[in-house]
Fold:
Amino acid sequence: MLGLIAGAWAGWYGAIAGLVLGFMVDEARSESKTRRSIRAFLAEPDRVEPEEPLPGIASAAALALSPAFFGLGDNASAARQGFESLCFTMLALERSELRWLRTVLDLTERSPATALAQHARRLALNGCPASRRLLADFCYSRFALSARRHEGAAEMRLRSALADCGLDARSIEESRSSAFPAARDPWRILGLRPGSPAAEIRRAFRRLSRQYHPDAAAGSLGAEEAGSRFMALRSAYEELMGRPGRTDGGAGSP
Structure:
């Protein structure tokens, strides 16, 4: 308005130019205010409550762009591109909302958030299921590209980090299945919940191996199917018992 009044002294052309200039100044001020708010939130998520297009998406973005979140190094530029692409395909964000999200990603990439525990807690308490699932899908998509994807300890850290963000075991498994469509989860093969103790793993293996042993199940399943299931059980058992922390018996003592 001030630009319009000031420009009116120079005639209609001046009035129009002043109006445009005033609009640009207002936009710049609004953008600056938004960036300050987001920057403050990234640093202290417990004290600042931003206006989000999707509850929890700012914390999800902050965690996604932090290599320290689930213990894997990552290329910041590739991580940002992957997260933004996933948002575009999973979420129906309007243009203004996508612009806001890109501001979050820009500020996070330039000054990575250090309040990871606070962001995880905020996502668990205040985030919506879509924001939490977005983070899980992103993490597993990056994990699938990692050279450490076959390390059980690395995946357990990822599962633990996602659980701290409010995801239950079923949601985590769904994200894992999306990233590894051909993979077979050893916990699921043995019918156990992730993290079950060694004693439960042994009991499940003994029970199922008796049920699907080729000598016992060949008649009902066929020799080939029974042998395939038995080998899957054996592989799942050996994988779980051979993971770090399993010192009470090992894979060779079912």
Q: What stands out?
A: The longest helix spans residues 12-43. The chain has three domains: 2-43, 57-183, 188-241.
